[in-house]
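A reminder before we start the practical. When you read a complex entry, don't treat the lines as separate problems. The point of joint prediction is that each chain is placed relative to the others, so the output describes one connected object in space. Small molecules and nucleic acid strands, if listed, are placed in the same frame. In the example below there are two entries. Take a minute to note the order of the lines before looking further.
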Amino acid sequence: MSVAHYHSVEETRSRLGAYAKSAIAGLVGVALGLAATYVATFGAFPFGAAHSGPWTSWPKAGAADADPYARAIIARQAVAPLGNGEGLAFVATTDDSGRPLDGSCDYRIAGSPPVARLWTLNLFTPEGRLLAPGPGRRAISSDQLLRSAGGEFEIVVAPSARPGNWLSTPNGAPFAISLNLYDTNVSPTQTSLEGLTLLSITRGDCLK
Amino acid sequence: MTRERGPIVLPWALGALFIAGIVHISSVFLMPGFAQNDAYVRLGGRTRGVTALPDPSIAQSMPFQDQQAEYSVCHFDLEQGATRVRSSVTQDALVAISFHDRTGRIFYSTTDRAALRGRIEALLLTPRQLDSVEASDPEDQAPQELRLTPPTQTGFVLARALIEQPGGRAAARQAADAVLCQTERE
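Here is the predicted structure of the whole assembly.
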């Protein structure tokens, strides 16, 4: 008798233990799953990036067949991406040699972007927010550029004023550059942009 | 007992990971439906006429918003009727329009150059409205507008007018304001 009684208590205890463990495993699972979603939809689009030098584009984000993560990010972050029929948007957060863009440095942007009816360069924080107000302009378009007789141009991104095409950076703060091509011949369905040369971003002097 | 403890944790951990995977995937799929402060809400807009977004070099309405453009937005609600969207012909600004469903996903986008005769003219309809419009089409004539059936009954239309010389920002603002959004009564 006493042996059987001992067994049933043990059984009940182990069953209760199993319920508790299931509940804990379930709660941990739900928490982990939600945390993963929170993290995955916090920053940039996780899939479908196309790279060209320091520039990255997410062509699918502007298409009807955007992946579920892109759709979640579009909804959560209230993004209105550039549509594939409008053009193609790129972002750079580093220079050509991979160093993060730093507001205390001078950068030279040059080259020839792919054929587009119009293209624009904008400076933002790395998260895509407006930079704190400062002297000088933070955006320029292709038809506002001062060009040489041969059509070449150079844009200087620097914290202090420069002659010519100057975009002003927030001194000391990290930043990002966006490049939007409107009415472009670059096919947004390309997942690889190899062979495509966009503008180069070359770092010059830095303030200490 | 203590000998068994180590290996016994593993199935529970795997179970937790399995649940985490299911919760993660379903919450990603459900997010567009549950997001409270999405572009449809944040950009504002209404179903009658277009609403101008503030100057993007001063106040931002969305991440990475082009400061070299002026924006207008309108909502559509196909329950109230088909919605006609039309840009005006302009020489001074590049006009691009994207059509978004309720969750912000783009279902169509174009520029004035890609459109017929330099202007965008689109009619947003439900499949039923499309049938009735097609029934009254003249036989020998192609439709004069682009006909789109959005994936959701409500959504928004975002127009961008890019600043071009010599008109500048004022001309772009004018071009963005001139985009027409109009509900057609059945």
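Discuss with your neighbour: Chain B has a mean pLDDT of 88. What might explain this?
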